[in-house]
Amino acid sequence: MLQPLHLQLADRQVQAVLDKPAGTAKGLAVVAHPHPLFGGTMENKVVQTLARACVAEGWDCLRFNFRGVGNSQGAYDEGRGETQDLVELAEQLAPHAPLVLAGFSFGAFVTCQAVQTLWPTGRLKKIMLVGTAVSHFPASPLPTEALEHSLVIHGESDDTVALSAVMDWARPQQLPVTVFPGTGHFFHGQLPLLKSLAMRHLRA
C-alpha cells in the first residue's frame, strides 16, 4: 500500500511516500535519493527498487524528497541539512522501532552520515549503499560494528562515481563491495538483480 505524505519538520514540510507491506511491519526503512541539483527525486528507479525490496521483506518504507525537490520546502544544503532531515524523519515516524537505511548516489552519502547518528541507538539493523558518491562528498566511514550489517553495491563502469574511489573509501574499513560487471551508475538492465541482492541482505 502506497501512502502519500506531507511530513512536518521544525520549520517546513517534506513531501514523502510510505510503502507498507501486507501484515505487521518489522520496522521502518528509509531510502534516500540522488543529488537534488541533478534531477534526483524519490521517484528515481534505483530508489524505487530498493524500496520494493524493503517492502517485500516486510518493512514499512519511507521515501522522501530532499529540500527544494518536488513539494519539499527549503533549499539544497550540500548534505548537511539532508542528513538532519533523514534522521529527524526516522525518529518521527519510528521513534522506537528497528530501522533500515538505504541510499543511492548522493543519497548513499547522506545515509553514511545518518548512520553516525542512528547506529548508537541500537535500532539500525541493515544498511544498503548503492553507487555511493564518495568522490564528490566526504562520506564518513561506517562504524566497525556496522560493517557486517552493510551491503555496498557499485557498477564496474560507473562514470559518475569511479569504482576506484569507492574501493579507496572501503579498503581502510575492510568493507566488502559487491561489483556489477560492466554496469553504469544507474544500473540499467540490472534492477531485478539489485532488488534480489537487497532482499537477500535484508533476510540475512
Helix and strand topology:
Blueprint (H helix, E strand, L loop, with lengths): L1 E7 L4 E7 L8 E5 L12 H12 L3 E5 L15 H14 L5 E6 L1 H13 L5 E7 L19 E6 L7 H8 L7 E3 L10 H13 L1
Parallel strand pairs: 3-4, 3-5, 5-6, 6-7, 7-8
Antiparallel strand pairs: 1-2, 2-4
Helix pairs in contact: 1-5, 2-3
CATH architecture field:
3-Layer(aba) Sandwich
Strand order of the largest sheet: 1-2-4-3-5-6-7-8
Number of domains: 1
Question: Can you give the helix content as a percent range?
Answer: 25-40%
Q: Looking at this structure, what is the CATH superfamily?
A: Alpha/Beta hydrolase fold, catalytic domain
**What's the CATH class, please?**
Alpha Beta
Please identify the structural class as seen in this structure.
alpha/beta
CATH fold title: Rossmann fold
SSE ordering: EEEHEHEHEEHEH
Globally, the shape reads globular
Individual helix count: 5
Please state the average pLDDT score.
97
What gap, in angstroms, lies between the N and C termini?
25 Å
